[in-house]
Design goal:
The complex is a heterodimer.
Chain A (H helix, E strand, L loop, with lengths): L8 E5 L4 E6 L8 E7 L6 E6 L2 E4 L4 E4 L5 E6 L8 E8 L12 E6 L1
Parallel strand pairs in A: 1-9
Antiparallel strand pairs in A: 2-7, 3-4, 3-8, 5-6, 6-7, 8-9
Chain B lengths: L4 E3 L2 E4 L5 E6 L6 E7 L6 E7 L2 E4 L8 E4 L6 E5 L8 E8 L10 E2 L3 E5 L1
Parallel strand pairs in B: 2-11
Antiparallel strand pairs in B: 1-3, 3-8, 4-5, 4-9, 5-6, 7-8, 9-10, 9-11
Classes of the chains: A mainly beta, B mainly beta.
Chain lengths: 110, 116
């Protein structure tokens, strides 16, 4: 069973900010939170990883509250090319036996 | 190329045949992973190599599946007596050895296996 719960699908429009929330109620002290993006017929691609508070890179931000039982991936001003499946994972940061759920299928409309 | 390379990209075979799928990881990456992904599902862990040895093969579904990485670089996933249920995309990923929390996995494009 996946350690995380996230919405199966989301819809948005070009130029909007998209926030995808992931629940991980049983996150362990040593666990990190990692998000991947996957386009059809491609392997997943790493987006961002964090442990607590806020992490930002050139493509996204990751917000993690103090209790770490959830996290929110924020995609600013999405475009059509952001249409993909987004996976939230928790693990001890060593990638061993990552448990992938179904992900969130994001559709960005014109 | 600089990324993870997988061949073949597509493989169609008949039930009962033997199949080999190859993964060429990013140069210098000591960790290599095989995953299997069925349509509409997330990747499912199969096996993890650290160098030449299989550090964790607990995800291999049965003894028809085997993987090697003899020189610590290229890996081959071998499937004997293929069954229709083996049809999936087989993904390979690599990562550099590193401290905990540096955890980016670099995936290949996958090998789509279809067993008729």
């Amino acid at each position: 069973l996946a350690k995380t719960t996230q919405p199966i699908s989301m819809d948005s429009y070009e130029g909007q900010e998209v926030n995808i929330t992931c629940s991980h109620n049983n996150i362990a002290t040593n666990d990190y939170i990692t998000w991947y993006q996957q386009f059809p017929s491609q392997g997943p691609r790493f987006i961002i990883q964090g442990y607590k508070t806020k992490v930002t890179n050139e493509v996204a931000s990751l917000f993690i509250p103090a209790d770490r039982k959830s996290s929110t991936l924020s995609l600013p001003r999405v475009s059509l090319s952001d249409t993909a499946v987004y996976y939230c994972l928790v693990d001890a940061g060593n990638n061993r036996k990552l448990i992938w759920g179904l992900g969130t299928s994001l559709a960005v409309n014109p | 190329g600089a990324g993870v390379s997988q061949t073949p990209s597509n493989k169609v075979t008949e039930k009962g045949k033997y199949v080999e799928l190859r993964c060429d990881p990013i140069s210098g990456h000591t960790a290599l992973y095989w995953y299997r992904q069925s349509l509409g599902q997330g990747p499912e862990f199969l096996i993890y190599f650290q160098g030449t040895g299989a550090a964790d093969d607990s995800g291999l579904p049965n003894d028809r599946f085997f993987a090697v990485r003899p020189e610590g670089s290229v890996s081959t996933l071998k499937i004997q007596r293929t069954e229709r249920g083996d049809s999936a995309v087989y993904l390979c990923a690599s990562s550099p050895a590193g401290r905990r929390g540096t955890g980016e996995l670099f995936f290949g494009e996958g090998s789509r296996l279809t067993v008729l």
